[in-house]
Design brief:
Elements: E1 2-6, H1 11-22, E2 26-31, E3 42-45, H2 51-61, E4 65-68, H3 75-80, H4 82-103, E5 108-114, H5 139-158, E6 162-167, E7 170-171, H6 179-191, E8 198-201, E9 207-209, E10 211-212, H7 213-226, E11 232-235, E12 240-242, H8 243-251, E13 259-262, E14 274-275, H9 280-286, H10 294-316
Parallel strand pairs: 1-2, 1-4, 2-3, 4-5, 5-6, 6-11, 7-10, 8-13, 9-14
Antiparallel strand pairs: 9-12
Length: about 325
C-alpha cells in the first residue's frame, strides 16, 4: 500500500507515518519543514500551496491512500494571520484535489477536518452530531469548513473518494501549544525547581473531549479501510474534561505542591465553552473506540517533558575547563 501524508512533520503526521509504516505501507511524507525526529518512510519538502511541486510528487509516487493533514492549525494564530491560514488550508486542499483530478488518480483521501467547524454549541445539542449546523468562531474554523465542503464537492463532481473526519482535541507526547501539554510542562518545571510552585492558567471552566494521538492514528487508518467516501464523521475522545479537572489529574502525578493563578492574558480571545462530539457514526462504521485513559496520556506527556527539559538543563551547564598542557 502506497500512503502519502501531507503535513507529515506535524504532531499527528509523525505518529501516523509510524503507524502506516508499521502496518507495512510504503510511506511518503511531505511538509514545509523537515521532521524533528527520524521519519518513517520517505520525506520530501513540499508546500501544498505549490501546485506544480505537489502535483509532480503525487504523479511520481502514485499514492493509493492520502491522509491530508497539512494546515495552519492554531485558532489563535488564524486571528492574526487569516490570509496565511486560508492559503495553507483552503488553497492547499484545492491544489491536492486538482492534482488528483488532472492526473486522473483516485486514491482514498482522508481529510483531517476539525471540531472547530461547529463553533459554540448549546448544552442541549451536546454531544454534537455531524448534522449540526456549522458556525465557526475564527478563520481557522472557517478554513476547516472550506476543506470539509471542498472534499465533498470533489467526491460529488469528480468521484474522488474523499472521507471527512471532524477531529476533536488531540494530545499526547510531543504536542506543543495545547492545554494538556502546557499544563504538564508547567507542572514538570515546578517539580524540577525551574519555576516557583504557582501554575498560571487561563479559563478553568472550558470543557473538551480529549483523544490520545496514539488512538487517533488508529482511527485515521480505520477510516480509510471502512468509512464511506463522501461521508463526514466525528472522531474524538469519549470523555469530557474541564481545565480544572486536567490540573487535578496532573497534580496527582507530581511530587510537589503548587497553587493555581488564573491570569487574564492567558484567556483565549475566542473559546467555545464546551466541545464534545458524538462518535457513534464513526464507531458503528469502523468498530474503533479510544482506549488510552487520560491518566496514561498525561503520564506520558509529563515523561516526555521531563526528558526534554532535563536535556535543556544539561545543555546549559558550563563545561569544565580543560587542563592546559605545558
Amino acid at each position: 500500500m502506497k500512503v502519502l501524508i501531507t503535513g507529515s512533520s506535524g504532531f499527528i503526521g509523525g505518529f501516523l507515518a509510524a503507524y502506516c509504516a508499521n502496518a507495512g505501507s510504503s510511506v511518503l511524507g511531505i511538509d514545509i519543514k523537515e521532521p524533528t525526529a527520524a521519519s518513517s518512510g520517505s520525506f520530501e519538502r513540499c508546500d501544498v500551496r505549490d501546485f506544480d511541486r505537489l502535483s509532480k510528487l503525487i504523479s511520481e509516487f502514485g499514492p493509493e491512500r492520502i491522509f491530508h493533514l497539512a494546515a495552519q492549525s492554531c485558532p489563535t494564530t488564524s486571528l492574526v494571520e487569516p490570509q496565511k491560514t486560508i492559503e495553507s488550508n483552503v488553497v492547499g486542499t484545492v491544489n491536492l484535489f486538482e492534482s488528483l483530478r488532472a492526473l486522473e488518480l483516485r486514491p482514498i483521501v482522508v481529510v483531517a477536518c476539525s471540531s472547530a467547524e461547529y463553533g459554540p454549541i448549546a448544552p442541549e445539542d451536546l454531544p454534537v452530531r455531524e448534522t449540526h449546523p456549522l458556525h465557526p468562531s475564527h478563520p481557522y474554523g472557517v478554513s476547516k469548513v472550506a476543506q470539509d465542503l471542498l472534499a465533498l464537492q470533489y467526491f460529488t463532481n469528480d468521484s474522488i473518494p474523499a472521507i471527512r473526519l471532524r477531529i476533536f482535541k488531540t494530545t499526547g507526547p510531543g504536542k506543543l501549544g495545547e492545554v494538556c501539554s502546557d499544563l504538564a510542562r508547567r507542572a514538570v518545571e515546578i517539580e524540577m525547581g525551574i519555576r516557583p510552585p504557582v501554575m498560571p492558567v487561563g479559563n478553568l471552566t472550558s470543557h473538551r473531549s480529549i483523544v490520545d494521538v496514539r488512538d487517533l492514528v488508529g482511527a485515521l487508518g480505520s477510516s480509510a479501510d471502512y468509512c464511506t467516501p463522501g461521508e463526514v464523521y466525528n472522531v474524538g475522545g469519549s470523555n469530557n474534561y474541564s481545565v480544572q479537572e486536567l490540573i487535578e489529574a496532573i497534580r496527582a502525578q507530581v511530587s510537589v505542591f503548587f497553587t493555581v493563578n488564573q491570569r487574564p492574558e492567558l484567556m483565549r480571545l475566542v473559546d467555545e465553552p464546551v466541545t464534545t462530539g458524538n462518535n457513534s457514526k464513526f464507531e458503528a462504521c469502523t468498530g474503533w473506540h479510544p482506549k488510552i485513559p487520560l491518566d496514561i496520556t498525561l503520564r506520558d506527556i509529563m515523561s516526555w517533558w521531563r526528558t526534554r527539559l532535563n536535556q535543556s538543563v544539561e545543555m546549559q551547564q558550563p563545561r569544565g575547563l580543560a587542563t592546559v598542557q605545558q
